[in-house]
Amino acid sequence: MLVNFDRFTFNLETMMSFDIFVMQAFGGVSLFTVLALMALGLAIVFGLMGVINMAHGEIMALGAYTTYLTSLLFQSYLPDFAGFYFPIGVVLAFGVTFLFGLLLERGMIRFLYARPLDTMLSTWGLSLILQQLFRQVFGAIDVNVPTVSWLQGAWHVSDTIQLPLSRIFILFLTLGVAAGLYFFLFRSHWGLRIRAVMQNRTMAGAAGINTANVDAVTFALGCGLAGIAGAALTMLAATGPSTGQQYIVDTFVVVVFGGVQSLLGTFMSAFMIGQMQSMLEYALSGSMAKVLILSLVIVVLYFRPNGLFSIKVRR
Amino acid sequence: MTISKRNFLKTVATAAAAAAVPSVLTMASGAASAADPVTVGILHSMSGSLALAEAHVVDAEKLAIDEINAAGGVLGRQIKVIVEDGASDWPTFAEKAQKLLVKDKVAAVFGCYTSASRKAVLPVFERYKGLLYYPTYYEGLEMSKNILYTGQEATQSIIPAVQWLAKEKKAKTFFLIGSDYVWPRTTNKIAIPTIAKAGGTVAGEEYFPLGSTEFASVINKIKAAKPDVIVSTIVGGSNVAFYKQLASAGITGKNTTIMAMAVTEEEAIGIGADNLVGVHSIMGYFQSMKNPANEKFVKAFKAKYGKDRVVGDTLEAGYISVYLWKLAVEKAKSFDVQKVVAASANLEFDAPEGKIKFHPTNNHLFKHARVGAFKADGQVEILYESALIEPNPFPKL
Q1: CA within 20 to 30 Å of B234's CA: B2, B169, B269, B313, which one?
Q2: Domain range enclosing B14
Q3: In chain A, what residues touch B272 (CB-CB under 8 Å)?
Q4: Cβ contacts (< 8 Å) between A156 and chain B: which residues?
Q5: Is B357 exposed, middle or buried (0-12, 13-18, 19+ CB in 10 A)?
Q6: How far does the CA of residue B240 sit from the closest CA of chain A (Å)?
Q7: What is the pLDDT of residues B9-42, one digit of tens each?
Q8: What's the CA gap between A169 and A148, in Å, rounded?
Q9: Residues B260 and B315 both lie in one domain
Q10: Do B41 and B29 share a structural domain?
């Protein structure tokens, strides 16, 4: 699904050979999966619960730092298995951020449910606290999270087409997370409870569902997904106290563009934005591509304020 | 109006006390002025996307201050330092610079890394007649009466880099990629005619915002263009993403000639030395230089901050800035900014990077340009050392 502006298609054709086109298309898909992974956690929290979590980026950073600590642990105590640290790091990142989400929800968020502005403000304050905490504990400088040897380099599809292994991994990780999320939300009892509470809280409560527990688990799930995203991103970029701030804007744009209440919308918007950004960056420069994407988002939101896919739900 | 005796006595007592206060103060300050410490400021980004490159320069400057204090201080006065964090945000730099000059009344400021931060504080220093020692390599095209530039400018960095690449690596096509602000853009503006004069062509010129982390598209462009050399003016934390993504696309320092204009031993720690093996760098100083002044400096730095710490070009320049200030103050026998700047002309110093001296008129240093390549341990193997280059911030291209 490529958005074709005539002028740009012309540019692409004259500038790209087939090999480059394949690598660019893969780049777009990879960007889509990165954005989707980051946005899923936020979409769950924002969309299903109506909680605006400004600390989402910092929770991603928390996942990244957990992966960093896992790599240090393996280097010190299990150097022979150093190559295995990464999958364990991802799982631990999920665990740590899930627990953190539970504590956060019980300790702070649940007092602010009917007050969106206060949630924004308090989670913004939390993001500042977390950033400073990272600075204190890990230092102000970015830390090096080594990429495991089996994910370094690229898959040489042909002599001229190379697809980076780390991005292929993230692709499959996102598919796995999406599948897991689907099964959890639509095929398990917890998912049933979550959907019930989301659709009609009072009725769900009357039916015997413990809405307080459901809220806690939903929020923790969103945070856990952010943790997985943070762990995956250590392969692509720097891990430092301001890592969260670098990703939060893109993540919010993807969620709002797709329609706050729709997980499918989040995926579609991540795909559109990912492909467009990749193609535009090739045709123009990095900064101009960003400008065009954000302008497009503004225009679309002007005509469809609830995002691309807004589901009308009786509340 | 009748004045009661009580009121009268109260008023007289208050007036007498008020009159006595100034004389008490002057007595106290008069007695202590000779041993008063002199305050200097340090202004660097200790947080944000530039922290990777800039935060540790503070450590090198503090080391110099501690050494000078241990040796008796400047003009018999101990140096007191106030450190401010610019937080990778240019308005914050300007604000903190003003605070240091106006509120703290510092005698000199050692600070700034990006040209953007320096441009932001320049009007502040000129307005409040302060003195800034700027220890970072930059693009030139500037000469302020209130700034002493202790880092390389373009004729000591990008120009010899292009010439070396054209001569040693027989490079004909250059791909220029950088962060989007004044230094990379101006450096490339200077590089393009230099490349043309050396018989080469520019295969691409791309810019990315500071802190950006997505380089997949431009890496594909680089693959399509197949340049002889990539000249990177990417600055700060973005370098981590850039070299990691280059490596996963199969482009490394071992199979491609990459000239990193803004990567020192410092950034190599965050980037990961294995991502940088074979990548070239051009600086005035590398930690691996062998001379007595450098061995003493590296030993003192590691003793104070830890044996795993490294020093890069900007740290060394920060260190010598403090010593150059001390020497200028002692030559001028005053802390007055104009006198210190005047005394800096032709000032010589035995630095860890070798013997350096100030130019008589343009506030810059004579420097050697050194080209090296990164090794697996994060240190740089020096491949080439130029003759001493006279600084010329306004070269004819």
Answers
A1: B169
A2: 5-34
A3: 144, 146
A4: 250
A5: middle
A6: 5
A7: 777 777 666 665 555 544 444 444 557 899 999 9
A8: 12
A9: no
A10: no
